[in-house]
Amino acid sequence: MAKISKENKIMSLILKKLKTQLISKNLDGYIVPKNDQFFSEYAYPNRLKIISNFSGSAGFAVILRKKNYLFVDGRYSLQAKMQSGRVFKILTIPNQYPYSILKSKKLRIGFYSRVFTENTIKNFFQKTKCDLIPLNIDLVNQIKKKKIKIKIKKFYKLLDKDSGLSAKFKINRLSNFLSKNKVDLQLITSSENVAWLTNLRGNDSNYSPLPNSYLIIDKFKRIFLFCNLAKVDSKLKRSLRYIKFLDIKFIENFLINLTGKKILIDKNTCSIFFKIMLNKNNKLIEKNDPIYYFKSKKNKTEIQNSIKSHIHDGVALTKFIFWLKDNYKKKKICEIKAQNKLFNFRKKSKFFKGPSFPTISGTRSNGSIIHYRASKKTNKLLKDGDIYLVDSGGQYKFGTTDVTRTLSLDNSSSKIKKIYTSVLKGHIAVTNFTLKSNTIGSNIDDAARAPLKRINLDYPHGTGHGVGYFLNVHEGPIAFSKKNKVNLSEGMIISNEPGYYENGKFGIRIENLIYVKKRKNKIYFKNLTMAPLEKSLIDRDMLNIKEKLWINNYHNEVYNNLKKFMNSKELLKLKSHCSNI
Q1: Measured on CA atoms in the order 46, 47, 49, 54, is the torsion positive or negative?
Q2: Measured distance CA(160)–CA(151) in Å, rounded
Q3: Would you tell me how many other CB atoms lie within 10 Å of the CB of residue 348?
Q4: How many whole angstroms separate alpha carbon 533 and alpha carbon 278?
Q5: Which of 34, 36, 39 is nearest to 56 (CA)?
Q6: Comparing 245 with 152, which gets the higher pLDDT?
Q7: Burial of 516 (C-beta count, 10 Å sphere; 0-12/13-18/19+)
Q8: How far apart are CA 179 and CA 171, in angstroms?
Q9: Cα(431)–Cα(539) distance, rounded to whole angstroms?
């Protein structure tokens, strides 16, 4: 009989306690999300991990009295089975939804109303006959009674020279939007949007400089920001005199006292808890927060600073590649040691603030897990003849990076080369895509998949996501995906990351960040990421002249941007890695 791990024992105990609460509250089930009350990607507390051990960035659980279900998308199917499959049935969206398993059952299912939007509940549960019960208490938190002392870290303000636009300019723009749309005020419930509007940053996430907070702005430009006041010092308050800072515990009273107002709320981040409160005496306008779109179009300063941050990041990644190639045969290098070494190379930049997401460092079967995270249990050695996938990024004083390279450890497989080259052809097709004013994300996604589909392969994730400016590494509304219909515009930064994953064997992904540049009334993609591609995995015979030219031009650009940061030995290596194919 297989030994039950300590994590599974703890998980089973927590689930048992939760199910005891279900009985006491006359509930048949409970829904547990990944997000917290600020709807950030890297939630604290991470209720879903507490209840299921699953550490991916997206998903939710449905706990019934006798069964447990974990819903994830295609990126996380393998990871979820490894981390939670012993206790949970893993279901992959969009193949199966909660209504697929609940069907005609008439159950009473509770959920914590502060961490769910009406949109989410409707999308996943509206086709069921269940009674969905909003609760004002968090049942998972009731189990985890031990309080963790968190060190208070202060909010801080970006300088106008680093943000490109002052907070006052952004506030005027949003206020004009509210007036034009005859809205009295807006409740901003996403911390990343509060950060953009005010140019504030904080330390409330391990991977993004978020200032956890809510904000209310009216058409007269009056602003109320609700947060933990211990994070706001007097100097910051003086520099933002036009913002009234209030303790976050007062937001409920503030919202209850609003009457007869026309209020804009974001359908993706305004909780049911807040919506119920506001709906009693006001008229609600539910739309996407306009800040998402404003924020997605980076200004000239943000683009220039992003270019600089990617050069610093490219130096770190390129030196890491040199180190790895020089040492994997001589030293025992495992996935964890490799990712730690890359982190140390990044730390050498005085502008580096920390990682922008948990590093994915995987070889052999671990490389096939799309959002793999190395642990002591899963850690593999990097061996001669294998390939190694590393997806990582950094938060810098002036930008956010995200880059993936698949590296050859003297791999000679013709199959691997064929697939890598097909992925590369899709990557090039994205950057070379002819953009028009009506080009949308789904057009790009189709082009990226075409070379793989010609050999009957595909990948179960989108081709690209929007990226913030010293903010979230995953940022809406733009994406390269099958369903994204947002028009591409000047200044948008997006990832370009086609790949292929063979379950239990290997994974391949190539990722650069690109941005939409405008010149002479034409828009086109320009690379931000500066790091060599793995030339030894390229089958030159599969490339056309245009693709070979793209690779040579890209490597020439990488060489010219990075050469001044290299010592004499590194410069020789850089020349070799960036030489023409």
Answers
A1: negative
A2: 28
A3: 11
A4: 52
A5: 34
A6: 245
A7: buried
A8: 12
A9: 20
To 10 degrees, the CA torsion angle through 429, 430, 433, 437?
160
pLDDT tens per residue, range 21-41: 999 999 999 999 999 999 888
Q: Of 194, 161, 447, 509, which is closest to residue 304 (Cα–Cα)?
A: 161
Render 149-206 in DSSP notation, one character per residue.
Answer: P------EE--HHHHSS-HHHHHHHHHHHHHHTT-SEEEE--HHHHHHHHTEE--SSS
**What does the H/E/C string look like for 25-73?**
CCCCEEEEECCCCCCCCCCCCCHHHHHHCCCCCCCEEEEECCCEEEEEE
Instruction: Render pLDDT for 257-292 as a digit per residue (tens, 0 to 9).
Output: 999 999 999 999 999 999 999 999 999 999 999 999
The pTM score is: 0.93
Q: Which residues pair with 33 in a beta bridge?
A: 60
Q: Name every residue whose Cβ is closer than 8 Å to that of residue 160 and which is 6 or more positions away in sequence.
A: 166, 199
For the CA atoms of 188, 189, 192, 196, what is the dihedral angle to 10 degrees? 10
Matching residue, tokens 């550490």: 55
- 515-521: list long-range contacts, CB under 8 Å, 24+ apart: 515/298, 515/303, 515/306, 515/491, 516/435, 516/488, 516/489, 516/490, 516/491, 516/492, 517/490, 518/490
